[in-house]
């Protein structure tokens, strides 16, 4: 999944005090206007259903119907069995805590059912902040936080390996936390403070995996170690919590290099361990499954199918093993998953005799994805799964099995019929949003990994699934003709082409008949003028290289280079004049404009913020030349003369994205929305007076980490705004 890159968080060079820029008198700022109460808002997800990597699922061993899930960039969830849906638990994490939306591990206390622990930290890179541990006494309704001095990696390689957080079965006050680069940590005060375990034998590597799993087998603790070369120790244990030793006679070789997950059968006293040659979810080519008789120390190879064969079409059947779960009530009943098995497609194997024989559950599976149709990926039938590293068996219902994939969580109650068990869990990384002024849909979205969605309703996953012809992975551009809203264009990383156009508002699509050669590796943002007669497509390579924009007047059948367009800039169409386009060159702080339908561009205002790591140029609907520029380090600027000059609004000091919606009753200007910053907080704000005053419309319980990609406001419903999050899907709010 995706995240703000470090390049978007670099410091700004330059100020806004040069040509064409003047300052307005200070106003009320981003606090609400004097005497005006902040409006009450209701926030919900626009339903898609999953769309991200579910990296862990954990049923509570002592409470029927209680389960938790973790994701790589979208936080943690609690299962509400009565409502049959997931409740998000980490939406309170705000802008400054964006790195904590990746959940490295979770843990429950079997002896205290209301206790829950989360180890948070999305990236272990130098540019990311340190991790944190959240602890709750009420199943995640409220939290107490401890910041760590080490980094965690909930969206790094190995994010689908076993839980790295564990409550000691001998003492509920003691917790263990395995890290990637800092060894093993221990807390003796229920997570309030942490210290390194000095006797742990694993030697951390700067580029390695460190501890991959922690599991209890009775009173003995086991720790998987991901930095083995296949011959050195990769599984350790302690019987007293003090002295750790390598587990003897362990399996060796490439297929047993990285212990991925482990589960203990308390009836047979056997520990089942899945292995692969890499931590995954990508990059695995071989693996195995072994069980350890913890009393005798005997290891047995119980691998269901050895990787490395060939499929029916001759493809190499390479894969590793991922998830493992035991039936809490039936001895010897175990479920394991393959992972990274693209040729023959991943599956679950189930045994009822301790691994002597296995059955592939995929072979008899009946998949029903009617609730989330995008899971067909533009094909006739959905795939059983991929990136399967999270597997869980309900301790109170042996036939209730769930497993996570790169986009959903499948569940069954009879081991045959499977359907997404995903309600309430939304993990999309959102890139583009449009709220059309007319038509059936109030929202069209462009997403990371899952393309474009046409939302007929906000309360159900789009019935058409992801846009096809072509199918996109990640979207880079989405635009609608202001005076012809039935005309929509999109660009992105496609399977057969990188651009498409629609004449029915985004219900169906036709690919561009041709595209510039560079577009295959550089599909940037796109714009269309008011009547849809002209397209401007910016080409930006995945490595950041910028190229001249391309222009088409025949729905993408032919293209011509616009050499005067600033390379890499995002094109913006004037909402009232079909001959006008705009572009902001952030490298030089210059606004460029075209008055000949995008054939040529000339510089207008200069001296605008240059080098700003995040910015957006937007146009107020129905008004020619009414431009707003939001900048991360310098706030908001406005031009009413097509970019010849800009005025700086002093009502905010930082603005990340801006949008316009239906005007308030009696107001003469559209409602303005932004993700911006006041003296101390980055939040969502609305102005009904053209930016003179602002009110905050989200609250401390609804912050969703980094929300700076884009927003859209509804042109038909005053007060409704759509927020693009980086892992919590599309949030939409409206007054109550």
UniProtKB/TrEMBL annotation:
Name of the protein in its database record: 1,4-beta-glucanase
InterPro entries in alphabetical order: TAT_signal (IPR006311), WD40/YVTN_repeat-like_dom_sf (IPR015943), Xyloglucanase_GH74 (IPR052025)
GO MF terms, alphabetically ordered: hydrolase activity, acting on glycosyl bonds
CDD domains noted in UniProt: Sialidase_non-viral
Assigned keywords, A-Z: Carbohydrate metabolism, Glycosidase, Hydrolase, Polysaccharide degradation, Signal
Organism: Streptomyces asoensis
Keyword Hydrolase found: yes
Keyword Metal-binding on entry: no
Residue spans crossing the bilayer: none
Alphabetized SUPFAM superfamilies for the sequence: Oligoxyloglucan reducing end-specific cellobiohydrolase (SSF110296)
Biological process per Gene Ontology, one example term: xyloglucan metabolic process
Family according to the record: Belongs to the glycosyl hydrolase 74 family.
């Amino acid at each position: 999944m995706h995240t703000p890159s470090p390049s978007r968080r670099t410091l700004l060079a330059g100020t806004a005090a040069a040509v064409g820029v003047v300052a307005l008198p200070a106003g009320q700022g981003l606090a609400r206007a004097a005497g005006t109460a902040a409006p009450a808002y209701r926030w919900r997800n626009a339903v898609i259903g999953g769309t991200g990597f579910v990296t862990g699922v954990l049923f509570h061993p002592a409470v029927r119907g209680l389960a938790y899930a973790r994701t790589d960039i979208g936080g943690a969830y609690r299962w509400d069995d009565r409502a049959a849906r997931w409740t998000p638990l980490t939406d309170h994490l705000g802008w400054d805590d964006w790195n904590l939306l990746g959940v490295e591990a979770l843990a429950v206390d079997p002896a205290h059912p209301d206790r829950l622990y989360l180890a948070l930290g999305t990236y272990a890179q130098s540019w990311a902040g340190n991790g944190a541990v959240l602890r709750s006494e009420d199943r995640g309704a409220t939290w107490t936080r401890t910041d760590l001095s080490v980094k965690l990696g909930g969206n790094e390689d190995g994010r689908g390996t076993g839980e790295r957080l564990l409550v000691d079965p001998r003492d509920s006050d003691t917790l263990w936390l395995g890290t990637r680069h800092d060894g093993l940590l221990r807390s003796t005060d229920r997570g309030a403070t942490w210290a390194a375990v000095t006797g742990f034998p694993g030697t951390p590597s700067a580029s390695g995996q460190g501890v991959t799993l922690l599991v209890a087998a009775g009173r003995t603790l086991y720790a998987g170690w991901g930095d083995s070369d296949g011959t050195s120790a990769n599984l350790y244990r302690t019987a007293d919590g003090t002295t750790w030793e390598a587990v003897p006679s362990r399996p060796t070789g490439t297929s047993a290099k990285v212990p991925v997950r482990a589960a203990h059968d308390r009836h047979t006293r056997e520990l089942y361990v899945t292995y692969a040659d890499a931590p995954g979810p990508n990059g695995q080519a071989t693996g195995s499954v072994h069980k350890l008789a913890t009393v005798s120390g005997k290891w047995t190879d119980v691998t269901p199918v050895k990787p490395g064969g060939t499929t029916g079409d001759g493809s190499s059947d390479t894969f590793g093993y991922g998830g493992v779960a035991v039936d809490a009530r039936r001895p010897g009943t175990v479920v394991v998953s393959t992972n990274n098995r693209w040729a023959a497609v991943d599956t679950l194997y189930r045994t009822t005799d301790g691994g002597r024989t296995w059955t592939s559950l995929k072979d008899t599976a009946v998949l029903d994805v009617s609730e989330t149709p995008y899971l067909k990926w533009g094909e006739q039938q959905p795939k059983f799964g991929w990136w399967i590293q999270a597997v869980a068996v309900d301790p109170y219902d042996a036939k209730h099995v769930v497993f996570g994939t790169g986009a959903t969580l499948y569940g069954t109650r009879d081991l045959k019929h499977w359907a997404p068990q995903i309600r309430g869990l939304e993990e999309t990384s959102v890139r583009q949003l449009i709220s059309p002024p007319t038509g059936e849909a109030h929202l069209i979205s462009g997403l990371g990994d899952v393309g474009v969605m046409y939302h007929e309703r906000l309360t159900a996953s789009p019935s058409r699934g992801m846009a096809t012809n072509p199918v996109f992975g990640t979207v880079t551009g989405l635009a609608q003709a202001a005076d012809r809203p039935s005309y929509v264009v999109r660009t992105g990383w496609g399977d057969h082409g990188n651009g498409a156009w629609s004449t029915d508002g985004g219900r169906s699509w036709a690919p561009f008949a041709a595209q510039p050669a560079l577009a295959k590796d550089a599909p940037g943002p796109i714009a269309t003028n008011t009547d849809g007669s002209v397209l401007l497509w910016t080409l930006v390579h995945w490595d950041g290289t910028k190229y001249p924009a391309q222009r088409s007047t025949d729905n993408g059948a032919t293209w011509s280079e616009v050499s005067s367009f600033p390379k890499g800039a995002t094109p913006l169409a004037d909402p009232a004049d079909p001959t006008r386009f705009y572009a902001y060159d952030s490298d030089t702080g210059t606004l460029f404009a075209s008055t000949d339908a995008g054939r040529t561009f000339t510089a207008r205002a200069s001296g605008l913020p240059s080098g700003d790591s995040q910015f957006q140029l937007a146009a107020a609907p129905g008004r020619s030349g009414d431009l707003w520029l939001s900048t991360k380090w310098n706030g908001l600027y406005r031009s009413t003369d097509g970019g010849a000059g800009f005025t700086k609004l002093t009502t905010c000091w930082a603005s990340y994205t801006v949008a316009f919606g239906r005007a308030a009753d009696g107001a003469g200007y559209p409602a303005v929305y932004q993700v911006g910053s006041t003296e101390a907080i980055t939040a969502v704000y609305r102005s009904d007076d053209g930016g003179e005053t602002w009110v905050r419309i989200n609250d401390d319980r609804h912050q969703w980490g980094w929300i700076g990609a884009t927003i859209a406001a509804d042109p038909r419903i005053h007060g409704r705004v759509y927020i693009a999050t980086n892992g919590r899907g599309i949030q939409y709010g409206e007054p109550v």
